[in-house]
């Protein structure tokens, strides 16, 4: 087989291409992304990229790597290119059918673990996507009964596959919009990371590769949050909690909506960047 490159030259090429792309990449971010993509193509741990810079790379692998570089430079999320994303120390399969799990969403998991009963609890993750929230909770509280819902059958299939790969069996997956799959049932915790970006928000351009329905409810950025607040009381047990992720400027409006809906102990929490990112309230 003809050898066309080695790890060091391909990594340097990747850093140049990604640094030059109009994606706001710093050299450090470009080096990280290039290393992740090269390790993915070579099917080796990323540490091997730095420890074996002289390793030869065949032409087919080099061509695949360069194709992934072009897609990353065009703004496609790294997680879609590798098909993997870590969330709460769990490795999840992801695809363009679901939103890429973000670190700030781990705040929902942290608060659910703090508020939920230590013993058995009934929990619903609404709009589960890849299953990130539901799977994180199931991994930490195997005694909880977790239900994950989603309007997307393909997204739900991916979440189900992630659960199987992680050996998390106490999760029930249901197809349907928000509370529709929970008719007549009550829960100790209801959680959701719903769409909360207005359809005319310029930020959506940067997120154009991710599923539109998972990002925006339309012109009214608060629409999905309003539905979740309005329907929660019918599905919460006494003293149950509703936990919602939201945009950085929506906390005050969401707190007011929860108070008007007769929730108590309403409070918002900040993410690592200092933004009010999720709000909770107790029935």
What does this structure look like?
- The longest helix is centred in the N-terminal third of the chain and has 16 residues, at 27-42.
- Helix content is 41%, strand content 20%.
- With 283 residues, the chain is α/β, with parallel strands linked by helices.
- The strands form three sheets. Strands 7-6-5-8-9-11-10 form a seven-stranded mixed sheet, with helices on both faces. Strands 1-2 form a two-stranded antiparallel sheet.
- It is built from twelve helices and eleven strands.
- The mean pLDDT is 92.
What's the number of structural domains?
Answer: 2
Strand element count: 11
The biggest sheet amounts to: 7 strands, mixed
Strand content: 15-25%
Q: Strands across the major sheet, in which order?
A: 7-6-5-8-9-11-10
Q: CATH superfamily membership of the largest domain, which one?
A: Vaccinia Virus protein VP39
Mean pLDDT, all residues: 92
The proportion of residues forming helix, as a percent range, comes to 40-55%
H and E order: EHHHEHHEEHEHEHEEHHHEHEE
Q: Tell me which oligomeric state these chains represent.
A: single chain
CATH architecture of the largest domain: 3-Layer(aba) Sandwich
Low-confidence stretches: none
Termini separation (Å)?
67 Å
Q: What's the number of helices?
A: 12
Kindly provide the radius of gyration, computed on alpha-carbon positions and rounded to a whole number of angstroms.
21 Å
Question: Given the helix and strand composition, which structural class is it?
Answer: alpha/beta
Which fold name is given in CATH as the topology of the largest domain? Answer: Rossmann fold
């Amino acid at each position: 087989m003809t050898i066309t490159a080695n790890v060091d030259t391909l990594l340097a090429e990747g850093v140049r291409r990604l640094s030059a792309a109009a994606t706001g990449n710093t050299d450090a971010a470009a080096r990280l992304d290039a290393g992740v993509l090269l390790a993915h193509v070579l099917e080796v741990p990323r540490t091997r990229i730095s420890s074996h810079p002289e390793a030869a790379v065949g032409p087919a692998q080099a061509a695949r790597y360069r194709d992934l570089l072009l897609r990353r430079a065009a703004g496609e999320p790294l997680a879609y290119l590798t098909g993997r994303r870590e969330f709460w120390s769990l490795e999840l399969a992801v695809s363009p059918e679901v939103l890429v799990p973000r670190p700030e969403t781990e705040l929902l998991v942290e608060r659910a673990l703090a508020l939920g009963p230590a013993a058995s609890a009934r929990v619903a993750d609404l709009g589960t996507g890849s299953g990130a929230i539901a799977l994180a909770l199931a991994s930490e509280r195997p005694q909880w009964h977790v239900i994950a819902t989603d309007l997307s059958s393909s997204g739900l299939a991916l979440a189900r596959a992630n659960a199987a790969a992680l050996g998390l069996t106490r999760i029930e997956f249901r197809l349907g919009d928000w509370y529709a799959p929970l008719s007549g049932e009550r829960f100790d915790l209801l959680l959701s990371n719903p769409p909360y970006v207005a359809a005319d928000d310029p930020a959506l351009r940067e997120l154009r590769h991710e599923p539109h329905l998972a990002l925006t409810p339309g012109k009214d950025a608060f629409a999905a949050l309003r539905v979740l607040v309005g329907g929660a009381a019918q599905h919460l047990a006494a003293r149950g909690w509703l936990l919602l992720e939201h945009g950085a400027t929506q906390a005050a409006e969401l707190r007011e909506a929860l108070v008007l809906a007769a929730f108590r102990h309403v409070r918002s929490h900040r993410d690592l960047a200092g933004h009010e990112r999720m709000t909770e309230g107790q029935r």
